[in-house]
Amino acid sequence: MAMAIRVSLLLITLLASTLPSFSLYEDQVGLVDWHQQYIGKAKYAVFHTQKAGRKRVIVATEENVVASVDLRHGELFWRHVLGEKDVIDHLDIALGKYVITLSSGGCILRAWNLPDGQMVWESFLTAGKPSKTLLLVAVCPQHFHHEKESLIFVYNDGHLHAVSSIDGSILWNLNLATESVEVQQLFQHDGGDVLYVVGLSSLSLLHTYQVGNGELLLHDVVEVSGGFSGGIALVSSEILVGLDATKSNLICLTLKDGKLSSQVVSIHGLVQDFSGPAVILQSKLEGGFALKFNTYVLFIRAVCEGILKLVGRVENAAAISGSLALTDESQAFGLVQHDGSKINLVVKHANDWENDLLKETIEMGHHHGLVEKVFLNNYVRTDRSNGFRALVVMEDHSLLLLQQGKIVWSREDGLASIVDVSTSELPLRKEGVSVAKVEHTLLEWLQGHILKLKGTLMLAGPEDVAAIQALRLKSSVRSKMTRDRNGFRKLLIVLTKGGKLYALHTGDGHVVWSLLLPSLRKSDVCQHPIAVNMYQWQVPHHHVLDENPSVVIIGKCGLGIDDPVVLSFVDTFSGNLIESPSLSHSVVHVIPLPHTDSAERCLHLMIDSNEQAHLYPKTPEASLIFQNDVQNFYWYSVDIDNSIISAHALDRKCVAEEDDFCFTTRQLWSIVFPVDSEKIIATTARKSNEVVHTQAKSMGDRDVKYKYISKNILFVGTVAPKATGGVGSVTPDESWLVVYLIDTVTGRILHRMTHLGSQGPVHAVFSENWVVYHYFNLRAHRYEMSVIEIYDESRADNKDIWKLIIGKHNLTSAVSAYSRPEVVTLSQSYFFTHSVKTIEVTSTAKGITSKQLLIGTSGDQVLALDKRYLDPRRSTNPTQAEREEGIIPLTDSLPIISQSYVTHALKVEGLRDIITVPAKLESTTLVFAYGVDLFFTHLAPSRSYDSLTEDFSYALLLLTIVVLVAAIFATWILSERKELRDKWR
Question: Which of 589, 835, 872, 925 could form a Cys-Cys staple with 607, CB 3.0–4.6 A?
């Protein structure tokens, strides 16, 4: 029998060595995660379609991105995301090989290599206060004698700079800020060496500066009767046009001998049915301009000095492109009109309005909204005629290329500006087939595992390998539109700045559905709609087969607190708009309540600017549920400007309004921080839906500590008023950081701690009974992370087993938020290498799995840091009991392990926030990070202890068991025969 055991152990060792490893190799990255790159809403575009090199368009966006986009497929050749405050003001191309960007209010001028996007040079230009900036790339043949060099002229804050396009050196700088002049145009006259700068002061004084080689040649001031309204449009190198103060007359400015003369032209003389006011559109049309009034757009040409001629009139023109040079003397422009679900693209000759160079109708649909901008480009067809392509920016911030009457490609770049994120479960079944039903026959299942076994043992031929790849592709479950048993497949519902709602599948990130919300579209009623927040409205559990989940979107018309509010209810399964009611009150704060009605709709309180609370949904059932628990609702508000924190509760029903769902509020308490010494810069609280597995924490010495678990604790960080600027803006003696833990029901300060010589920015995360925050230590010149843990000492007697036996314990005693808690806090600080954009903590279904901090670094990556490194009980020499508990020896810095980057080698450019969602498996949490890019992955902080990997070979396991059983049986027979032979001897 001993021999049988030895043989069995040998077989187990041999077979175990053939089992696959669970390490993550480089080629496995991307199996459970996805990464998507976007650029945002385009505001400038320059085509580069020369014969040499790949055809591309250079785009600058509202997300401060400059990118090179392939005209064939819409893919990115290269991309650079500038800083959050580094707003791109202008875009151009110099010398045919450099992309020129002017940003930061005209302070930073950069040149990027056109083919690969590498930065060639960077120049910093002086600027005082923010002002209008102008950029002009011009050719000046006088420089370097016989060589031609493109000079770049930049105007900012009264200064005119000339910069070399080759190395970025500043050749000269001219100060024009002699008066409060708002410069409107910067241009060359007939391609000469003289620059002209035209500006306004006092809305009626017209200033003309004539500049040559860094010297002011002429400064002319002309007073224009009637004044100006708005900007001045450059029609040609000799003619400029503006509107007078009444917006019913045009002022035609003519440049002659370095001086401007003005002439007033009545719009009524051009258009008999004109009814103002009029607006000059900013489209750059050579030799003319576009004027808009009501729903009409007029195209007016400047024939000669002071003579304007109406050449065309279009109704409901959505967008107009700038002029496009076809030849040295020929110009064209494009305009787009909507026709139901179609758009009409028309290209006209600048000098011939009657004949169209191109007229196409493209089926567009309504899911992208209206066209906001159009950029035109031409190419030469095989018959030597001109063809045209149009780059179109849509209302939902998407980017489309139109050519030959169809959409060549489209990019959903609205996803670069996500405002809020929620999640939704997928349907239980699809097309009448239950997820629980068997999807394959037994024979197919066996054949599949036999193929996998042959592949594992390297016995598969070429046909078997192809069959295995096809089987894997067929059996892929990542993008199925039904729920899975592990809870990995969900819908990410994202709300974008463009007012569009997307449903992204967590499997591969594809767009399941999208909806452009009507309430967030620009209209005559609301010129500036804003998407504010999104909340879960209906989350069916008991009625999962009968009801679909839904979300509610809060939209406002403007940034004011009293602006009108519209709610939009959307079905998250289908993407259909359920209803979109307008509210009669404003909304300042929305409080999701922990109650649902019989239809499983979540109750919400909406606080208006008059400090009145409104209950939603407005149903008698919701009102009854709410009334039963109305005395237990509290909330807090933070006034950052005045450094005041207040708590509120409901008082009684509104008397002035006949509304049973309106309640007045009362203030419970307020904490006023001294504004001369403390300024609130950060607040954070626990998530209302966080799950805590246990309140007790077992120590290594068999002792027990009880966590102080309360959803009413608020973390507040304040700094000295001088320290609200950037890092290093003050000295250590002038700066301090004070952190508080405040009970929001009673207003008690549970803990207060001061970090001398420290300043913000402060980023914090609150979970269970601990809070971690990040700040900068001026004395050490390093970033730090601190942790505070709070424990409940009032339950210390519960550790006595005899009191538990005789029933003299307080486990069943009532707990009141008004009772004074007996708490004790532990804290510790550590140095940290990186600056931080955001901090989040992992969340799991039952709260059993250990926590990890997800840190969004300034390098736009996500770092996973085990909470054990931020244990305040760490010491340099932990005891044996503490080592058994898992306490890590104390070091002054937190470790940065390269394998701990959740994003691997990828970057989430413009990272703004990180969202964690628990899966059904306790070991796994779903992580979604978004900014300009999107990134999603699964994370197992304590390893996958409750599941097998997807590539686990069940067939090999079955074979192992069969071989072991056969080996045991064979060795048992051999052992019996040997014993029988021994007995006969």
Answer: 589
